[in-house]
Specification:
Family: Belongs to the ferrochelatase family.
CATH architecture of the largest domain: 3-Layer(aba) Sandwich
CATH class of the largest domain: Alpha Beta
Pfam families: Ferrochelatase
Strand content: 15-25%
Strand order of the largest sheet: 2-1-3-4
Number of helices: 11
Low-confidence stretches: none
Main location: cytoplasm
Protein name: Coproporphyrin III ferrochelatase
GO molecular function: lyase activity; oxidoreductase activity
CATH topology of the largest domain: Rossmann fold
Oligomer: single chain
Helix content: 40-55%
Largest sheet: 4 strands, parallel
Mean pLDDT: 95
Length: 310
Amino acid sequence: MPKRTIGVLVMSYGTPESMDGIEEYYTHIRRGHAPTPEQLAELTERYDAVVGGVFPLRENTNRQVAGLQAALDRTVPGRYACYQGLKHARPYIEDGVEAMAADGITEAVGIVLAPHYSVMSVGSYVKRAREKAEALGIAMRFVESYHLHPKLIAALTERVGSGLEAVSYARPVKLLFSAHSLPERIREMNDPYEEQLLATSAAVAAGVGFVDWQFTWQSAGRTREPWLGPDILDTLQEVKEKGYRGVLVAPVGFVSDHLEVLYDLDIEAKAAAKELGMVLERIEMLNTDILYMETLAESVVSQDEWQNEI
């Protein structure tokens, strides 16, 4: 049996716990600045279109944390204890670290429910967790990316293969890999985000043996600075002009069903494709897929520098 417990801080973007929490959530994203009534109404309408007033989205992350705990327990029973920390909702990243400290945790591993590293995404989670851990005397190591983990690629390859079969009646089909856009300035910073996404996409396409694919972006923020493109809505227009009848979207930058998938793709992009006379389908999200849970677990164990002390 392990001599002591290693904490695992499982971090993600976060989502409101209910429709009533949307304004607080949006205000936190805007760094304390409340959204305008128009902005709040638009985001509320998006959530309502997805969940119809019933709010199960937080459960996705809860189940992933529980799934990772189970996968870790199968590997080394009693060794790890998972804690949740969200970027823009409670429990915040700092709350998760405080919960570990309250339980007497002195060593921990942090991991984000996002396979690809950017200083603007995963890097910001790590910064907040590290600062809080250092303040509380917790030694914490981090998994920064796992975008080419064999089990992640296997899980995505299986989903893309099934998706291509389902949309094969609408040939010719274009396979579009997508991820959340970020400001273009990350390219000047030599940020690995774009390169890692392309590497994942190429590995999955090779795994399924499908060469007719390209990468596109989605869900860009509404700021004055330029964001990475082209956006998927523009890409759909381009695909239509080239004579494609079907599109399969593989949002490899996301790991669960949430607003950017359920609204931006399932509602907005699908409607745009229909207007263009095309069929658009997307792959099933990873959520608690066993291969994804094992990807996370193995990535955590790889950062456990204290395991030799067991």
